[in-house]
Amino acid sequence: MVVTNLSAARTRDALAYVRKVAGGSGSSFYGPMLKLTAEKRDGMLALYAFCREADDAVDLEPAPEKAAEKLAFWRQEIERLYQQTPTHPVTIALLDTVARFNLPQGLFMEILDGFEMDRSGQMTHPDKATLERYCYRVASCVGLLSIEIFGYSDPRAREFAIHLGHAMQRTNILRDIREDAGNGRCYLPRELLNAHGLDGIPLEKLPDHPALPALCAVLGLEARAHFQQADAAFPHGDAATLRPARMMQHIYMRYLDKMAAAHWRLPARKLSLNWWDKLRVVGGW
Fold first, then answer.
1. How far apart are alpha carbons 120 and 114 in whole angstroms?
2. How far is it, in rounded angstroms, from Cα 269 to Cα 50?
3. What is the value of pTM for the model shown?
4. CATH label, 121-285, candidates 1.10.3720.10, 1.10.10.10, 1.10.600.10, 3.90.76.10
5. Residue range 7-120, CATH number
6. In the chain, count of helices (H) and strands (E)?
7. Number of C-alpha atoms within 13 angstroms, CB side, residue 220?
8. Per-residue model confidence as pLDDT tens digits over 221-239
9. 28, 252 Cβ separation under 8 angstroms
């Protein structure tokens, strides 16, 4: 057991907090984590809660200066976490996990750098290089932290996590086009928008534009290529410990398959899998 300078009651309250955040999210993330040991599961729920709350500091804060203040708080809170003096329930819950699994501080800061890209407006019609950097920060870095919690012995697990993050984030971008457009955002790279005659199209018209499915098909191929690279890098000797990551991979591949089967036409509501679909993926592993 890792010893911290926090009371057992504060730690229990913090763990209850992150479990509530993760359990109430409706995310595909929660099911695969149920097969982990308690220590790993609590670590992953704390990591998820950190990403969720720091991201919400940008997404749910309309005032740019307030969003900047909230991100600054999270940077300071990560510093306090690594000084063993956290103040927020999420970082209190992370304290044991960071020590137990030797999680690198720099990866948390990279994730916050990704959220700063959102806040600063860089992610509205980004170029491809900016999109690549963003996907690495907000998804691959989460994957790199996750595999430290899951456990692995083969260094190829890092390459697997990086490609899986890129694939999942591109899949999320495709799923969220309509919602993002409604919030004044567009993560589609400007090179693709230009190539498909969509540069300058008002965001409110983009989701139903007849040229959009062809663009989505190209981005879908990019996501699928990263899934394939993740498969090629997957260290089969670590299959048991990395099973939750593989579950997430197959859930997101199913999202991609559903969008392709609909010929990349956007549904009225964000694409989701029902519990039976998710259960089949989780139960199959």
1. 10
2. 27
3. 0.92
4. 1.10.600.10
5. 1.10.600.10
6. 14, 0
7. 23
8. 999 999 999 999 999 999 9
9. yes
